[in-house]
Amino acid sequence: MISYKPFLKLLIDKNIQKKTIIEDTGISKGTINRMNNKNNQYVSLEVIDKLCNYFKCDINDIIEYIPSETSNNAEK
User: Fold this and answer.
1) Which of helix, strand or coil describes residue 2?
2) Interacting residues of 20 by C-beta distance below 8 A, sequence separation 6+
3) What is the pTM assigned to this prediction?
4) Mean pLDDT along residues 32-37
5) How high is the pLDDT of residue 73?
6) Within a 10 A sphere around the Cβ of 33, how many other Cβ atoms?
7) Is 65 helix (H, G, I), strand (E, B) or coil?
8) Other C-beta atoms within 10 Å of 9: how many?
9) Most buried in the list 18, 23, 38, 69, measured by CB within 10 Å?
10) For residue 34, what pLDDT is reported?
């Protein structure tokens, strides 16, 4: 599973509202909402790239990978 917790933490740490991100990057409100903790839905790598460029950060500052139980079982 992909989690956007690092992105949400980055917004808090930098005191930036989602509205500002939408205005500054052109990323749609719907796309930003998909990155909500409750949703954790797919967003394209293009969006991740825009956010990394905007914040001048690494991809790990935007997303994190959380292995699911299913993927752990596949390795056994």
Assistant:
1) strand
2) none
3) 0.84
4) 89
5) 54
6) 13
7) strand
8) 11
9) 18
10) 93
| Cα dihedral 66, 35, 23, 60 in deg (nearest 10) | 0
Tell me which residue of 2, 1, 4 sits closest to 37, measured CA to CA: 4
**Nearby residues of 10 by Cβ (< 8 Å), 6 or more positions away:** 16, 55, 57, 61, 62
* Residue 27 DSSP one-character state: -
Please tell me the distance from the alpha carbon of residue 57 to that of residue 30, in angstroms, as a whole number: 23
Among 33, 8, 11, residue whose Cα is nearest residue 20: 11
What tens digit of pLDDT does each residue of 36-55 get?
Answer: 878 789 999 999 999 999 99
Query: Mean per-residue pLDDT for 46-66?
Result: 96
CA atoms of 11 and 15, how far apart (whole Å): 6
pLDDT at 37: 73
